[in-house]
Amino acid sequence: MAFEINEACGIFGIYTREDDVAKLTYYALYALQHRGQESAGIAVSDGRESLMLKDMGMVSQVFSERDLNNLKGHMAIGHVRYSTTGSSFWENAQPVQVPRRRGSVFVAHNGNLINTVELREKLQAEGVRFRSTSDTEVIAVMLARSPAEDMAEAVKEVMPRLVGAYSLAILTESCLIGLRDPYGIRPLCVGSYRDGYALASESSGLDIIGAEYMREIDPGEMVVIDEDGLRCERFMDRRKSSLCIFEFIYFARPDSIMYDTYLYHARKHMGMSLADEAPVDADVVMPIPDTGVPAAIGYSQASGIPFGEGLIKNRYIGRTFIQPTQAIRRLGVRLKLNPLVGDIKGKRLVVVDDSIVRGNTTREIVRMLRDAGAREVHMRISSPPDMYPCFYGIDTAVRKELIASTRSVEEIREFIGADTLHYLSMENMVRATRRPREDFCLACFDGDYPIPVPEDVKMAKCRLETERVGTERE
């Protein structure tokens, strides 16, 4: 990956009386750390009292053993965040807590609402004072203010008023709830754990604690977990299934399961299709680590060209998109990836990555390989050109900043300095998932947004992105 798409968030929830829920949540958030490295938080409840700890930083930086020992209870939710709606500061860290008639409601959110401004202004007119700028606090306030007697009924009353993408983990003193929006844009699954159950953005978050994966939560469905066990209810009618295709391409871990498919296998098949679509005489197939590895293995197997690493990743450097300026991002490429000169010099390379967003990082990588003595560099991308921005919880650039929206493939090849460049076709990308095209949101490639995006929302994103880019260039 060119390190330029920022992920939304990872969420987790657990209900069990047989183990330490805070520590289980800590380990699960570790497994979901790739989904957000800006802040982390855990909220717990013992049925009477609730406690929460959250802070800026990665999971290992936020929680100490003493912290976890103090978070006592039999149910918990956790969150790792990268900001989409709302700036990067402590008040926007999650879970978000809002007092209600009896106790509190805690909300952890993955996704992005389209009608946040409208909902926020209405609540402010009613006297609500917000502490953060995130859409998650809007959701939590609406749930806390609902006249419904219990939280499951509050979900049914509130959710139809929300427009956008959301997977939520909700905690009260009496229950744990997990739910997905009626389009299912952001993932969430449920598993069994000893005497209880767990929720996670990805099945890998269940695997790490030894929970048994059961299934994905359906779009428009909520699962309610309490002392009576687990029950499933529909809070909205299911719409067109629209899971974000980038979960299959890049976001989720390759050992996670979505749509009953291991993402590793889907990505490997994308690489095999790349070899069929764009064969080339070369000496080595190498990935951009780590997200290009499965597709590079597939390309190597289908083409018969040996697989080699070529670039060694420094595992102790955070994702470069966390850095605040483009200059630091460029330095971050050199900090994060180092070429194996002896294995590159004089070789014809097939370099496999999952996507190109702005193109700047890819250009730095090609330049690095040339400096290491590569004779030829052939870029192969295991997805189509990324041409449209996301409004559902992925912090991509606005359209004018996406290189494929303003340049042809040949122009992109010239910009990044590769000898050849090929993007995987939409048809073969979708075929690798073993699901029909209709089951995905493909808006970043074709501009067909399953949830219509108002022009004022598009313009607001454009203004924010322009301001951010301007600040970086300063």
Features:
disordered C terminus; six-stranded antiparallel sheet; 33% helix; 23 strands; seven-stranded antiparallel sheet; alpha+beta; Rossmann fold; 18 helices; Glutamine Phosphoribosylpyrophosphate, subunit 1, domain 1; 474 residues
Structural class computed from helices and strand pairing: alpha+beta
Q: What is the gyration radius calculated from CA atoms?
A: 22 Å
In the sheet with the most strands, the strands line up as: 3-2-4-1-10-9-11
DSSP helical segment count: 18
CATH architecture descriptor of the largest domain: 4-Layer Sandwich
CATH class of the largest domain: Alpha Beta
Instruction: Detail the poorly predicted runs.
Output: 319-324, 467-474
Write the SSE topology.
Elements: E1 9-15, H1 21-31, E2 39-45, E3 50-56, H2 59-62, H3 65-70, E4 75-81, E5 96-99, E6 104-113, H4 116-125, H5 135-145, H6 151-158, E7 164-171, E8 176-180, E9 189-193, E10 196-200, H7 204-207, E11 212-216, E12 221-226, E13 229-234, E14 243-244, H8 246-251, E15 257-258, E16 261-262, H9 263-277, E17 284-287, H10 293-303, E18 311-313, H11 326-336, E19 337-339, H12 341-344, E20 348-353, H13 360-371, E21 376-381, H14 403-406, H15 409-416, E22 420-423, H16 426-433, E23 440-441, H17 443-446, H18 455-473
Parallel strand pairs: 14-23, 17-20, 20-21, 21-22
Antiparallel strand pairs: 1-4, 1-10, 2-3, 2-4, 5-6, 6-7, 7-8, 8-12, 9-10, 9-11, 12-13, 15-16, 18-19
Helix pairs in contact: 5-6, 9-10, 9-16, 11-13
